[in-house]
Amino acid sequence: MTEHVRNRIPFVVVHDENRKLEKCLVMGAGHFGSCLADHLADLGNDVVIFDKDPEPIASINKSHVNEKYFKDYPLSTRIRATTVLSDELLRSSTVIVYSIPTQAMRVVLSGLKGRLTPDHLLIFVNKGIEASTGKLPTEILLEVLGEPYVSNAVFMSGPTFSEEVVQRLPTAITAACKSPERAQWAQRTFHAPHFRVYTSPDTVGVCVAGALKNVIAIASGLATGQGFQNNARAAIITRGLAEISRIGLKLGANSLTFVGLAGVGDLLLTASSEKSRNFTVGYRLGKGESLDQIIKTLGSTAEGVETTRAAYKLVQKLGVDAPMVTLMHKFLFEGMPMEDALRALVTREMKSELYGWVAPEELASGIAKL
Questions:
Q1: Where is the binding site, in residues?
Q2: Using an 8 Å Cβ cutoff, are 370 and 256 in contact?
Q3: What is the pTM of this model?
């Protein structure tokens, strides 16, 4: 056993004979990309982090600190950083982690077409829906790279704040892939005592939950900024989960995904914590700041803003009852006053709580198998 400290909570790596050390390429030196690169490096993997922005790349190479995003936390000395995505780097990498915003996914993947092989383990940790098309990450990957890339790709999501991961605080996440073997490969690569990885075959459900929880988080932050307290926040999160589930089930997702880590786990975290970028956007909107000013000063990407635009198109296409998505779109992009949006939400017609929800016997049967 080896103990790692580096001025944060110590953890123990158990040297598992089934764990093969990988050559990992992490695309994106933002908050989440950096913390995952650090995690993978501390597990003994060879890690290169790529980003077009020279600022974090230079500081990582110079001082092993990402001055732009994680200036308070030294990163592993095993990490190398680069602004050049060379063919040699791609060929030599066995695991490629995509941690660039979903809105750039089509362009970035198009640049990789013909430079990847199905042998690469592609892991996508971005969360969102493409604003211009309403496509999920699974669909974008299929359209750009095709089969077998999409069937072999892993989509990871769950309640994972970057600062807690980089501090080695206990975390759990879902790794979804249509191929059980690929899901287990990702699991073996990332799993640690403080970073538990659970596998799932439901790539669609994981992507839907990961994207739409950001919309609900903005709504929760908005209500909190307006002075609403815990009762309202709990109601927004719970009814938001029902909304996410209706959309996901319409797209063929497994209902159990929404009561798991990628579903209620991630939603609860993102929609109830001041550490959440999307909650912060909503909170500042509730305090009267403009969306343009918030985006300029946030310091990182809050994917829920563009996801709201895309999600609205999606629910219109699917014909799904999604009042929070609809009202957040009207507020953010159609000029609806904040007070009217909040009033419309609480004065909707009376409904059954289980309307549009999974059948109780199906849910109970599924939960019993967890």
A1: 28-33, 127, 277-278
A2: yes
A3: 0.90
